[in-house]
Amino acid sequence: MKTTQTNGFAALWGIAEATVFFIVPDVMLSWVALQDYKRAMVACVWVLAGALLGGSVIWYLGTNDPEPLRHFFASLPAVNHAMIANVGQQLQQDGLLALFIGPLTGTPYKLYALEAGGAKFNLGLFLLISIPARLIRFVLVAGVTAGITAILRRSVSLRIIRAAHLLFWTGFYSWFFHVMAGVN
């Protein structure tokens, strides 16, 4: 995939995950990092740009009437009404700094965007805090993947590393969706 295609795809994935998609962009970013660390770092910025755009849309929709989106989001894999309510409580307690909790707990960014809009948090501030809250994990995932790949490439082919990547993410999401299905 060419760099411009990678960047466009990264931006679209960022928009999709911030709105309706339920697979994190880390999957794509780590795939790119298997081949090219610098390209992965640029893709991180494009994913972030897409996430900010998608988050803005969800924030705006949340300012009007968040309830329909709450019900829709609760129908997505690994999301439920209790998780959405928890995000609202986090925002009440911690303000927009709660955005840093999501990446640590598997809580989708879209829920923070929706609840921040519903609570009438300032959009500019929401986006400003979203930048490090989203970008830290993206850069960390891509960087760790590139580092591990550099070490493994000394004794393992890129083909095997790619297969391990696919197995890792398939296993992770199988486990994650199973665990989150049991959470009420």
Which key phrases capture this entry?
79% helix, single chain, 9 helices, globular, 184 residues
Shape, per Cα inertia axes: globular
Structural class by sheet pairing and helices: mainly alpha
Work out the count of structural domains. 1
Low-confidence stretches: none
**Count of helices?**
9
Strand count, sense and barrel status of the largest sheet are:
none
As a percent range, the share of strand residues is under 5%
Oligomer: single chain
Write the H/E string, N to C.
Answer: HHHHHHHHH
How far is the first residue's CA from the last residue's CA? Answer: 40 Å
Mean pLDDT: 95
Number of strands: 0
Please give the radius of gyration in angstroms.
Answer: 17 Å
Relative helix content: over 70%
Q: Explain this structure to me?
A:
- This protein is mainly alpha-helical and 184 residues long.
- The protein has one domain.
- The chain is 79% helix and 0% strand.
- It contains nine helices and no strands.
- The protein has helices spanning 3-19, 26-35, 37-64, 67-74, 81-94, 102-105, 109-118, 123-152, 158-181.
- The protein is globular.
